[in-house]
């Protein structure tokens, strides 16, 4: 899971909790794990991971100067529309820009505000799969939904991307990371907050919400821990990556540095299988990775309104085993490896059989990319670019089993 999503989730939690903060303890110069100082790895520079197949950028959107429709602000999310176009959620513009499959700007949806179809702080979005043969009028067929964290609502748009409805009543906030499935339900990650006589607890839930409902119908995963304002880093133990396909099958994986594993659930929340790599070995972060993560996460926390005294993120000195989970359009499971600087993947079928490995071949710039797998494409962006924001797009391989790179057609 990316640093940007971790920052987002923590910011939402702390905002809804309304917590002030005691001054944090000073962090030492070396990271510590299980009570022992853990030296950072040496900076290895750019290295293209070995893989069965490589993914190449075919197109990009985003310019530094020029047409404002192509000048991007702060990218909070990307995805494919039901027509195969590109959607970019821009937190700075407070809107979603829609581009055609060939890259032409088509329209924007949403704007700054608290009225119907408006957002105060849009932090996540998803598009619903197109359902053929529906008898419902277009105005009742969901096309997209956006999480407005500050507005405390999910904002739905219909199949034509016109405003449909707001759904409120989530406590303490709506799900911030979303995946749309057939029928208009959403699977998402929702921050949780509980305060009672024993103390304050925070955590996250992965669940399924029916169309228009603030209460979940299925809970796949939940974790809560005592809240310690002097060490926000402990909250990462409760964060989990997830992914969902159009039929409502759900993947979850803990944000763990100790074990490589993921679980597949059926739409009703029954466990299908858990895959674990018994040969997994922990990989330490480099000193520059640790410092960059510390600076980025703390800066984003303050930017989202957190008191500076609470922005005290101390990175885990090891890389997470699993960095993300996705289904593609062929129902293959893409597990993003958290252990490589350049985006790389293990790809499985829905029975847990390993199919092939893949990696993005885009040079040194890709070391800071976040990659989204959607349909038959991959979409990548840098949440904190050195120059100006861009979105990169490429095709996925169409074979279903192991193959040599030259056999993929890429």
What can you see in these coordinates?
The protein is mainly β and 410 residues long. It has a single domain, classed as Neuraminidase (6 Propeller). 8% of the residues lie in helices and 36% in strands. The protein has two helices and 27 strands. The chain has helices at residues 3-17, 287-303; strands spanning 32-33, 36-37, 53-55, 59-61, 75-80, 86-90, 95-99, 105-109, 122-127, 142-148, 153-158, 163-167, 177-180, 186-196, 199-209, 218-226, 240-244, 250-254, 261-265, 271-276, 322-327, 333-337, 344-348, 354-360, 370-374, 377-381, 391-395. The strands form seven sheets. The chain has a five-stranded mixed β-sheet with strand order 3-24-23-22-21, with no helix packed on it. It has a four-stranded antiparallel β-sheet with strand order 4-27-26-25, with no helix packed on it. Helix 1 packs parallel to helix 2. The longest helix is centred in the last third of the chain and has 17 residues, at 287-303. Mean pLDDT is 86; it is low at 19-36 and 401-410.
């Amino acid at each position: 899971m990316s640093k940007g999503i971790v920052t987002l989730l923590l910011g939402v939690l702390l905002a809804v909790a309304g917590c002030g903060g005691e001054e944090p303890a000073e962090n030492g110069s070396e990271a510590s794990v299980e009570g022992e100082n853990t030296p950072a790895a040496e900076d290895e520079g750019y290295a293209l991971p070995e893989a069965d197949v490589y993914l190449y950028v075919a197109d990009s959107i985003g310019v530094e100067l020029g047409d404002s429709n192509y000048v991007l602000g702060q990218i909070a999310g990307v995805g494919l529309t039901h027509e195969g176009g590109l959607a970019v959620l821009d937190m700075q513009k407070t809107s979603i820009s829609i581009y055609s499959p060939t890259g032409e700007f088509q329209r924007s949806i949403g704007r700054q505000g608290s009225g119907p179809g408006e957002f105060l702080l849009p932090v996540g979005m998803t598009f619903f799969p197109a359902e053929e043969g529906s008898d419902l009028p277009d105005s009742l067929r969901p096309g997209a939904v956006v999480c407005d964290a500050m507005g405390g609502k999910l904002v739905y748009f219909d199949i034509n991307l016109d405003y449909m409805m707001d759904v409120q009543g989530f406590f303490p906030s709506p799900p911030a990371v979303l995946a749309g499935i057939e029928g208009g339900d959403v699977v998402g990650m929702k921050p949780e907050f509980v305060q009672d006589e024993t103390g304050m607890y925070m955590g996250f839930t992965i669940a399924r919400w029916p169309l228009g409902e603030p209460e979940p119908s299925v809970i796949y995963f939940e974790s809560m821990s005592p809240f310690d304002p002097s060490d926000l880093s402990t909250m990462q133990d409760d964060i989990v990556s997830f992914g969902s396909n159009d039929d409502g099958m759900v993947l979850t994986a803990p944000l763990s540095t100790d074990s490589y594993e993921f679980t597949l659930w059926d739409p009703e929340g029954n466990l299908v299988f858990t895959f674990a790599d018994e040969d997994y070995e922990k990989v330490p972060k480099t000193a520059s990775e640790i410092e960059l993560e510390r600076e980025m996460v703390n800066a984003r926390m303050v930017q989202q309104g957190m008191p500076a005294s609470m922005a005290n993120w101390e990175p885990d000195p090891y890389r997470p085993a699993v960095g993300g989970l996705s289904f593609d359009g062929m129902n293959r499971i893409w597990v993003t490896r958290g252990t490589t600087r350049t985006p790389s993947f293990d790809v499985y079928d829905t029975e847990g059989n390993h199919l092939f490995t893949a990696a993005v071949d885009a040079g040194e710039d890709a070391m800071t990319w976040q990659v989204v797998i959607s349909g038959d494409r991959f979409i990548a962006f840098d949440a904190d670019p050195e120059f100006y924001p861009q979105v990169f797009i490429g095709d996925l391989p169409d074979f279903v089993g192991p193959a040599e790179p030259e056999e993929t057609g890429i």
